[in-house]
Write a structure and sequence with these properties.
Number of helices: 11
CATH architecture of the largest domain: 3-Layer(aba) Sandwich
Low-confidence stretches: none
Structural class: alpha/beta
Helix content: 40-55%
Mean pLDDT: 95
Number of strands: 12
Strand content: 15-25%
CATH superfamily of the largest domain: 4-hydroxy-3-methylbut-2-enyl diphosphate reductase, catalytic domain
């Protein structure tokens, strides 16, 4: 069976940096916590827990009495949340992806200048919640579809800033930008494509592979935004597409794989799982 593994599959720079920070902090005298799962991957979070790095939610922080180290995950948090943790007495290590940090700075700067801020993304995603928390005013909206876009912009105004969740679908973002420019709701529009390069490359490669392959395997956690978007891209072009988290999840579908098989993976998928799946497809099928 012919197998192609995406060159872009697996940990991106921001995820690797955050996970490495956790491993480097584990095993010391201090209690180590991550504010929420450090990345959207159960296997990695479980392994870190075994090394004493515990994922906690914001409402649990008070019970920890400010003792220990808190690592802010790659998705980032609002300025208010970071201050709250610091005021409790915790030591903080910031593992926010630098590409996300850039969005924080842009949103803060332009909201202070009076711009209405439009974020393309999933409003329930922790990265987007953090981005919204860096807006200096309440003049901000998050949109994920054309209906929401039209509603958010219908009032019109002077100045508009457009940014995106780093893992948003690139094709969708470009479509939104085209709509904004055509409708001319705002006199001045400042558009920043803040989808990270790794996401663009991963999505472009997934599109190319899914058009050329007879079967596609997308490896990623079911809560991972970028993995779900990869699956959507692949499923649109290749009917025989499977979304799995581990090799065990592939087993029931193994008999359906045929022809040329493409394998890609989200930014939070460890390399050992990608290798395990690709070896199985090459050697066992």
């Amino acid at each position: 069976m012919e197998v192609e593994v995406a060159k872009s599959a697996g940990f991106c720079f921001g995820v690797k940096r955050a996970v490495d920070m956790c491993y480097d902090s584990a095993g010391g005298e201090k209690n180590v916590y991550t504010l929420g799962p450090i990345i959207h991957n159960d296997e990695v979070v479980s392994e870190l827990a075994g090394r004493g790095v515990r994922a906690v939610e914001e409402d649990e922080m008070e019970s920890l009495h400010g003792e220990g180290l808190v690592i802010i995950r790659s998705h980032g948090v609002s300025a208010a949340v970071e201050k709250k943790i610091s005021d409790m007495g915790f030591e903080i290590k910031d593992a926010t992806c630098p590409f996300v940090k850039k969005i924080h700075r842009i949103v803060d700067e332009y909201s202070r200048k009076g711009y209405f801020v439009l974020v393309t993304g999933d409003e329930a995603h922790p990265e987007v919640i953090g981005i919204c928390g860096h807006c200096a005013t309440d003049r901000i909206a998050v949109v994920s579809d054309e209906e929401g876009l039209d509603k958010a912009l219908s009032s019109g105004g002077e100045n508009l800033l457009v940014v995106s969740q780093t893992t948003f679908n690139l094709k969708k973002f470009k479509n939104f930008v085209e709509i904004i420019e055509k409708k001319g709701y705002y006199r001045s529009v400042y558009i920043q494509n803040t989808i990270c390069n790794a996401t663009e490359e991963r999505q472009s490669e997934a599109e190319r592979m899914s058009k050329a392959c007879d079967s596609m395997i997308v490896i990623g956690d079911k809560t991972s935004s970028n993995s779900k978007k990869l699956y959507g891209i692949c499923a649109e072009n290749c009917e025989n597409t499977f979304f799995i988290q581990t090799l065990d999840e592939l087993m029931p579908h193994a008999g359906k794989l045929h022809g040329k098989v493409g394998i890609t993976a989200g930014a939070s998928t460890p390399n050992n799982i990608i290798q395990e799946v690709s070896r199985y497809v090459r050697d066992e099928l």
